[in-house]
Queue: 2 jobs
Job 1
Amino acid sequence: MFRLRRTFLSAVILLAAVIGLTAEQGMWMPQQIPDLAARLRALGFVGDAAAFADLTGQPVGAVVSLGGCTASFVSPDGLIVTNHHCVVGGLQFNSTTQRDLLTDGFLARTRDEELSNGPGSRVFVTTSVKDVTADIMGRIDATATDRQRNDTIDRRIKERVATCEKAGLRCSVTSFFEGLKYFEIAQLEIRDVRLVYAPAEGIGVFGGETDNWRWPRQTGDWSFLRAYVGKDGKPAAYSKDNVPYKPAHWLKVSAQGAKPGELVFVVGYPGRTMRHRTYAEIKETTEWALPRSVRLAEEQLALVEKLTANNKDMAIKLAGRIQGLNNGLTNNKGVLEGLVKGGALDQKDAQEKALVAWIAATPARQKQYGDVLPAMAALQAEGEKVRERNAVMGSLSSASQYLSAAQTLYRLSVQRPKSDLDREAGYQERDWSRIRESLDRLQRSLDATADRAFLRWALGLAAALRSDQRIDPSDRAVGLRAGLPGTEADRAIDLYLGRLYAGTKMGDRDVRLAMIDKSTADLLASNDSFIALASALEPLAESMRETAKNRAGAYARLRPRYMQALLAKAGGLVAPDANSTLRVTYGQVKGVDAKDGLFYKSQTGLAGILEKQTGEGDFNAPKHQIDTIRDFLKSPKGPYLDPAIKDVPVNFLSTVDTTGGNSGSPTLNARGELVGLLFDGTYESVSSDYLFDEAKTRSIHVDTRYMLWNMAEVDGATNLIKEMIVVGAPAKAREKK
Amino acid sequence: MFRLRRTFLSAVILLAAVIGLTAEQGMWMPQQIPDLAARLRALGFVGDAAAFADLTGQPVGAVVSLGGCTASFVSPDGLIVTNHHCVVGGLQFNSTTQRDLLTDGFLARTRDEELSNGPGSRVFVTTSVKDVTADIMGRIDATATDRQRNDTIDRRIKERVATCEKAGLRCSVTSFFEGLKYFEIAQLEIRDVRLVYAPAEGIGVFGGETDNWRWPRQTGDWSFLRAYVGKDGKPAAYSKDNVPYKPAHWLKVSAQGAKPGELVFVVGYPGRTMRHRTYAEIKETTEWALPRSVRLAEEQLALVEKLTANNKDMAIKLAGRIQGLNNGLTNNKGVLEGLVKGGALDQKDAQEKALVAWIAATPARQKQYGDVLPAMAALQAEGEKVRERNAVMGSLSSASQYLSAAQTLYRLSVQRPKSDLDREAGYQERDWSRIRESLDRLQRSLDATADRAFLRWALGLAAALRSDQRIDPSDRAVGLRAGLPGTEADRAIDLYLGRLYAGTKMGDRDVRLAMIDKSTADLLASNDSFIALASALEPLAESMRETAKNRAGAYARLRPRYMQALLAKAGGLVAPDANSTLRVTYGQVKGVDAKDGLFYKSQTGLAGILEKQTGEGDFNAPKHQIDTIRDFLKSPKGPYLDPAIKDVPVNFLSTVDTTGGNSGSPTLNARGELVGLLFDGTYESVSSDYLFDEAKTRSIHVDTRYMLWNMAEVDGATNLIKEMIVVGAPAKAREKK
């Protein structure tokens, strides 16, 4: 699925006049779209391409970020549509043992019935994007050390963000084109978000993990939220007295969906792509990082299987982790297949050899770019020397929520006494409420037995590290050393973990939240064993961060020049790599020759739900929906029928260029009407994050006809259909029985 | 896969002038083809349809049965082509620890290098088919009891077979159209069959169990045998002095394969279909027989997993059983899906209701057919009362090779003293050499530990039987009874099995073979514990056979009349259900809308082998082939290139109507040239054995272009290409490196 599970910290636009051959590829900055007008006209677009460049206009102004997912306003009263898989947290938050909203779905028939989507739930409305490249990168002394360069950039970003946020907005300064450009993005941060409607899990997650990243697909991946603000119209924390937010723009919903061959746009917040990384970097990803991720995910899933066997409570607590591991595992396997077997790595190699030859071809280019690739290669080689240790340091924190909470608390206590601009990014005042919310929300998934099992596994990774890459603090704490036989290491780890979990109150929500305001000394005085472990690990963690800052300074010197060479050689319009900022992509509804002997047709229908339905596991649509589909297919008719397939279109494929973070993005037709929601990509597409495959890449959308049909015929969400402006065929809604 | 794992004991033709709407469906008797000439012309056939009716002419005369598989002559020197999966036994028989022919493949470069395909290997050449309906069914007294009817038919068949076989042929009398017609089929039985060429397992079984019954497919499922006869030209046992058989007809091999839309014929020996069974019978199959088979196969596969864990020897011994269980399991699941979910059962119900209404429509029909369906329903209800017990009796024998060998020996000893015509079918003199060969061949797969584990499982089924369906002899022998707690039953079974396996020499090849000629008294005097068990079970087995004879007599009275009603209502040309006799089917090379959102293209290519290759398990093509494919695809050219797909076509789909037993059947173009070999059907097709699905049914073939390309470019089988008459583009063969 295309939901981001992490946020990326990391803005730039280079407008050239020529349209490249690979124009179909591209998560374009909205400002770039007018330059693509000729290509769009060729694809049948009759509207004004310039409209897409207006971030606060129609339709782009209707698109919002949920932080990891994308969504869009579909009514003047702040009604928002996004993917079902983007509101799972809110459904879980509102579920009780009596009322399982995730399984059964939820519909608020009136505003009063709308439920808070939970603490930390946010809607970000982008209000301005400014090119601040000169402010961030200008006047840096050429003789500055890498560290000075890093610190200068870091300081300037913090200063701009601080100034920007004085207007009550949430701001960020983001690098585009590998640091060649920086943009300051200001967003309205709406903090009262409410749950309005989600179909039953058997509809919204139909196909489950079995069908994740796969086609054919029949997933009803939509849900509705509503943004609320204070009576003054400004963002406010949840309050009964808040009123629906009145967006400047909202999308009309088409009852005609998207037809094969039709031009469609997707507007959203794609998280991260690595298309402008060097061959050496992609090679390391292919040969080391991805195989390691696959292996670690498989080990953790094996652990999960043991932990959750005959333990439903544990399965519920670990559901998020399991879903994340599976989602990432399948994605990583797909990327590896595309890079290695699909030949993308070889293609990247050939492209870079062509770049090197291009640079070598003239003395001017040699002078300008000749040193860049070798210098980047040297930096990479240096980093690879300690990559195993650094990766395991990361695994310790990600394995144990107890440890990562302790580390967050410890670092916060160290940063808090400083002036806000001197605090590390992520630990400034602007971050504190997010930190508090996440330390609070943690309780839902926390389990000492599971946490211990995962930390035991991660310490096993540490125990197995080579002698030149040991994590000394954990070696000392646990009593590990290079070459210690496995059984002895296991025994030492178990002894240590016994003490560790006996000596902590990190699992107690109140104790944990009370630690937020404590000084470093008070934290240490609490004698909490996890605080002690975090403290012991801190010097190494700090030295790793120091190294990272030096490297970041060096890359800030090199990467923009590498990108300049790439752009100069390309000589055309190029989209920057995705960086969680607003992008526009376009393409056609289109099937694909997915594999030898196999063609993915561009649409699926209700009949496919009956085909796959087993009544259990991943294929467990509600009986009421199945009965309604059976009735419909006996004599297919009504406003949502596609006569070409004699069925209601459920999901469709398109050639648009999307990635994780795009989940929930509105799919628009040439008139800017909502025709679908982007929710996934195919397995054969995922390596396009590294190198775009024009032939095989397809995104997966849910058709608005399925959404409207199900709202009208199955879920009786008449109130919402009435609230939206549905264009095309009228929706004959029916009350839910 | 389409290999038959059992042979069916059961031979009619009804020639009507009108072509039905479902003319595409049909495993036609060769004699019926001339009546389909108009339909064939509509599909583009320009040849003489009457040629197909000549069983001893071209091309049908070139097609032979291997007993469970089909094959065809492709040279005047008795060279035979069939599927790879039809010669696995021969490859295993010739393998040694030093030389694994199954894994590595085999190529005889000269006649001298050709190896015996093993004892029991046969080639059957059909020499005549006679309508003997009057001889078998004529002049049976209308007042005869069902038992008398059965015995009369049985005796007449034996007499005709005995007379026919005096000419040195192998003969059978087979019921067609549910006993409405009987045909006597005479075949030349060639007993010296030699292995000539098989590709490596990674080519011949590429895709393995993962891809079995699936599309897309890239399996090189071909192999070559040669038929040898005595110097006098007559069938003879294997001897160095034998000479290649000179067939009257052999097929030309097309280097052009089969193109999408092309008309193709398949001539072969399909095993069994159940399209003319009643709704009640199909319903019982759906609700009881198939779910039971699925459950039992899954239980046995779980047992296999335990037995073969870390035990490669055991895995090799059980390979045949594992393959059979998996093949049947997937097939049965596919049939269930098609019958239940695909709606075939409902369709059958509607068809039968229409038949009942048709019968009720006139007094003449009521008189002629009115009693048939109720009488058949009563027979079925009677049979269902003891079906669990009867099925478990079958499971005991199929679970334990020790027990089935003992039962065969015991029954043979009882039958041998009788006159040959009085002996039970299967125990006549004509069967003795087959019995000896199978008791000999058994040794390859025999293992006391595995046998005991399977018998333990089957006795567990017996232990769980309801009180009114107990198997008394095994209850007494083991100490079981209805309602005995599971743990007590397990203990009793284990105690019994300890004694059973300690008291037998059935696992000793020489002892077992020596028992063949012993009298019943001598067998019992040997005190072999399995002979004792077989003896104990015999009275119940005999009473089951007696009941079966009475039922068979009743069905012989009823089924022909049911079929008459069906045919009269259909009013057109209908193909009889498959019964392991020679049939001709035709169709087009065609893809299929297999599932919602998914289209199976009609062809695959070499590129698909690279896509799927993992270098292990089911996708482990030899490195030499992979390298050759990579080279080929860099610049695709040569006589086997299909310009439309810029690749060598590997497998293709067609609409021909086939089933188990058709494996290895030649696929012919309109000129009667070999363009492919039939080897499988799709998962979505398997329920067509019960009710033909015109939209979804597809057969899977290997294209001769892939076979010839691989023979020339990978395996260097130049000698064979030279021996065959290759038409179309010339085969530029290359010597193997």
Note: Chain A touches chain B through 22 residues (CB under 8 Å).
Job 2
Amino acid sequence: MDQSEPRQTKSSDRRDLETMRHSAAHVMVAAVQRLFPGTKLGVGPTVEHGFYYDMEVPRPLTSDDLPVIEAEMHKILAERPEFEREEMPIETAIDYFRAHGQDYKVELLSDLKERGTTRVTSREDMDVDPGNRTSATMYRTGEFVDLCRGPHVPSAGRIGPFKLLSVSGAYWRGDEHRPMLQRIYGTAWFTREQLDHYLWQLDEAERRDHRRIGRDLGLFMFDEEVGPGLPLWLPNGTVLIEELERLAKETEERAGYVRVRTPHVAKESMYLRSGHLPYYAESMFPPMELEGVRYYLKPMNCPHHHKIYAAQQRSYRDIPLRLAEYGTCYRYEKSGELFGLMRVRSLQMNDAHIYCTLDQIEDEFLAVCRMYLGYFELFGIDQYLMRFSTHDPNQLGGKYVDQPELWKKTEEIVRRALDHGRINYTETAGEAAFYGPKIDVQVWSAIGREFTLATNQVDFAVPERFGLTYVNARGEHETPICIHRAPLGTHERMIGFLIEHYAGAFPLWLAPVQAVVLPIADRHAPYAEEVGGRLRARGFRAHVDTRRENLNHKIRDAQLQKIPYMLVVGDRELEAGTAAVRLRSGENIGTISVDDLLARLDAERGQRQHAALDTALGHSDNA
Amino acid sequence: MDQSEPRQTKSSDRRDLETMRHSAAHVMVAAVQRLFPGTKLGVGPTVEHGFYYDMEVPRPLTSDDLPVIEAEMHKILAERPEFEREEMPIETAIDYFRAHGQDYKVELLSDLKERGTTRVTSREDMDVDPGNRTSATMYRTGEFVDLCRGPHVPSAGRIGPFKLLSVSGAYWRGDEHRPMLQRIYGTAWFTREQLDHYLWQLDEAERRDHRRIGRDLGLFMFDEEVGPGLPLWLPNGTVLIEELERLAKETEERAGYVRVRTPHVAKESMYLRSGHLPYYAESMFPPMELEGVRYYLKPMNCPHHHKIYAAQQRSYRDIPLRLAEYGTCYRYEKSGELFGLMRVRSLQMNDAHIYCTLDQIEDEFLAVCRMYLGYFELFGIDQYLMRFSTHDPNQLGGKYVDQPELWKKTEEIVRRALDHGRINYTETAGEAAFYGPKIDVQVWSAIGREFTLATNQVDFAVPERFGLTYVNARGEHETPICIHRAPLGTHERMIGFLIEHYAGAFPLWLAPVQAVVLPIADRHAPYAEEVGGRLRARGFRAHVDTRRENLNHKIRDAQLQKIPYMLVVGDRELEAGTAAVRLRSGENIGTISVDDLLARLDAERGQRQHAALDTALGHSDNA
């Protein structure tokens, strides 16, 4: 199955896909109207991977209705109707929809007539052209007519394989004081293969849902009294955190980073200096007032690190200085926008700031990119994209700090680094941060779902605000450039991603419990403890399951817990100093001596120190 | 030198010591009056290890005056005056002091007459008996007369060896709107040996001051814009933190603890449930209001851990459950009370909560005590005291939760654990926490200074407030007992203590930089890098000093940085694959092969896994 298909679609293909999907939505509504006469139409835009339509149907729909509607859609498609575009004066359109009892369409057209738009909020897309218009565009498909800006496929015959996915309630115009309509989601693709892949991906994503697996494997929890968006990490999840931290620390240590720890709060004045206040204020937790001074929870680690840089006069011999911290930041996200580990209010970032000269950026930036590649290889992420965002010269002094030369230079340097590193990247103008060019890193999980994990930023403005300098070889003070980077993103999102990526079956080095010893009968318990003890002495996380359950029950439990190794021990194993080894996959790899088992586990755990990671870091081993 | 002398003093001896010191203060003031006629007296109580007196002297004193005053004191002592007690009507006393121009004494006597006390605040001790009095007590020593409640030694001949220590300014009655007086501090002891020991200790404490060493070794810093009491850990200090954390994690893992991570904030409602609000509110940071809900920075980790305990139904098979976290808590301390790492606002605690049955407390408590002993042995702390605080039966239902049986039982259990463990402890009634008996752990540093590092508490009240239960073997729900413990205290105070204890010369496993390689000339730099690389590959923190300074300069710098090993390499060493090894003590241990050096370093670093720690934890290796 080609998991990369969706995103390798060219943008022209993508537009065609959207047009086709929206046409499929029209056919869906036509089918609903045939099955449920009197259905009133709301709106129906396309969304990523599909479409929906909101409707007021005479009776509540259930998922059982979806196959019936699909069958009706196939009937309509068999009739191969055309999509006919028609433009008419708004008044005529209003009369038409009023005559057909389509109150919601009448409301939209009246808005269009009076306000020139159908939007009620800036984020609402009502699928009707904005602008001060006197005419409306209508699309007719057989007997079905809809107010719609189009475009559509010329004929329903061009609609590819589709599937209706779900039905749910949705307030008209997202307003809880307006009527609740029914929303049907569907998807449509050019080929059956694409549709099948997408449906498989949906199934897999549900099976791999990090919230469900997080609960089943005891990784994390939320608590109403602690607060939304504030995960509490349970023992198994804490193992994941600590293993990731160990990985990052070892990798960064070898790459010449030093570590720091900074408080979670700071005075208002520091955030005024950094510019977080007032520009970032609405993403910050509100202040605490202590002895007449306002303190804020830190939304980012950079200002604290700048303070550490500034704590002593630095010389050109001291830089590049790479300050790393797995710092916990707090950001305000609206309750409604929180989502599992993917959108939270407390974020523990794999953060570091690299202070260097302009001449050093290329090497440093490339080293950071290579660190990414090393991690990708370790995690088996074979599809990634770095989106390189540059400035817009027309917005210098406005959206962008007014340093045209520095922009040009740093962007060239970053581009060169990406090229030299043979990094897979795209470039977009006008998306840079205020203070320098940046890279957003996207990865695709094992089932082809896209995640934005991290950003890299070059910052040539903020070091000056903090008065950071170094004395160059000629004894002059210069301002360093700062690179912000976080290859492993935050624990929250990274672990959310890894849960889906591995479907909870983490590689040995990362697995919360690496092996469980299963004595067949009570009399084998001492030997089981001995085997478990040997594993623990070798640094493995090994449990002994001495519950009075039968063996199959224990094996099933261990499989559900995705424990990599199950070591069954009975009379024969006790006698011979061996264990019968099963993998969580169900594979039985036979009876082996405990010595051989330890050697095997050592080798497998050692995969973390994969040659790829060594290579990626090779450049800085002599730092 | 017997460093334990001061605290082994019996309490009757301690009272005698205070009496003698206060008498010494009278002699000191008599000397000042002789030298500086017209001196007006404020007050002069005793303090820990000494005494002071506040005076208005006709000209400002400097430390150069102290030997002169000491000499005058010796003259007075040579006269062997008696201390004569005299009681007179307050009016007579007022007249006497007014006649002698002693305005401050007149003020005190007038207060005594009008208000029955000389105190202006509850914490002020003006050295005059409280109570509604009509007469005042005066003490006369030769020509010197003071208003004083006594007691005093009968004769100045009984005053032991003394030393004046410092002179500084102090507002009359601590009020910045009243005159600034001059305060002379002094100390006095029974024997010359005691005095010498104390003066040595003072000198050493200054030399070992954690704030100075913290700055010199680049361990931590404070920043005005971050805020007072909020240390930022520099790279070398972060090594200390991470090594201590690693020690705690390994020790706790072997002792059957599991680790969790919890947010630094929680809703008000949780702290109302825990009772921190309102009872502990004034030690907490003020709230942040988000979406109409108040959030607080956590002052302790326990409520978050209780939430994790409560996340699933526990059974008797699950407990003892030992939840550990190096959690950072935030507490409000007044700016004026902050002191280096010793009193801070952010505290990263070596925290854990043990949930167990009443039957399990003894073993668990003893295991915790043994963990302390293991740490003490590792750190070479040979003097410690556990202060066991029990409840006061008369205050049940008031200061103490009204569960007389549980108090009796748990106190007995703890006492038994302490006895069985041959723990050095004292017992004090009426000092327990609201919810159970506790132990405060005091240790003495290498120079005999006392530090309170940690507390252990038994808690049989709060688990019920959080509705914590386990299902016992009979299927009934029971409430567990909780033990709060933090053997390594907080990083802040522990590292402050260790800095003084080791005077910054940390043992190899803890030293921020473990070895520095010093090439004699530039041409030896590649070999120096090779040696450094081999050390780093073995997991040692090794630097290569390639600065163009001469060797002696580099050696001196390394000694100032307290780097345990200095490896000098020149032609001979390059040739032979060796290094000339110097220790930070200055000791030269000769030229040895790099292989032998690595073996030596391995062995020395391995001292952390000392048999003592293994023994201390032996009981729980099969947990």
Note: Confidence is low (pLDDT under 50) at residues 1-8, 121-132, 619-623 of chain A.
